[in-house]
Give the backbone structure.
Amino acid sequence: MKKYTEPLKAILDRLHLSIRKNNLKNSKQREFILKALYEDGGHLSPEDIFGIIRKTCASASVSSIYRILSFLEKEGFISSIEVDRSGKRYEIASGLHHDHIICVECGKIEEFCNHEIEKLQIEVTNSYNAKPVSHDMLLYVVCEKCLKKSDKQTLQQ
C-alpha cells in the first residue's frame, strides 16, 4: 500500500468542508470512492472503483462515479493520469511529486521519483528562460514480467 502524507480521516474531514463550501448534499459515495482509492494505493479506473464500492453502496452507478471523480479532482482530492485510450486512472493527490512508468502490455503502473531527472527538467526550463508550473512524465515500457512472458513464448515457437 502507498504511504500518504495525510491520514484518510483528515482527507475525509477536508471532504466534508468542501461539500459544505459547495452547498452539496452529504453523499457516502464520495467517501467510499476516496476510501477505495486510499486503501488500494494504486491507479484505478472508474470501473475498478465501481467494482470495489458496489459491494458497500448499492446506489452506486458508473455514471455517478464519473461525476464524483470529476468533483474530487476539481477540488484537489485526487489526480488522474491518462495512460491509454481506455481513459483516466485515478489516485489520491498526495502532494508529493512523482512520475509514472506504464507497461503497454499489462497496463501495470509504477510510480517513481528521480532527482536527476527533476534537476534536468529545471535546467531545460531555465535554458528557455521560463518558469516551470508543473509537469507529468509518463514512461511507456514493456515491464520485466511481460518481457519474460514474451521471451518464453518466443522460445516455445
The two ends are 38 Å apart (CA to CA). The first strand starts at residue 78 and ends at 84.
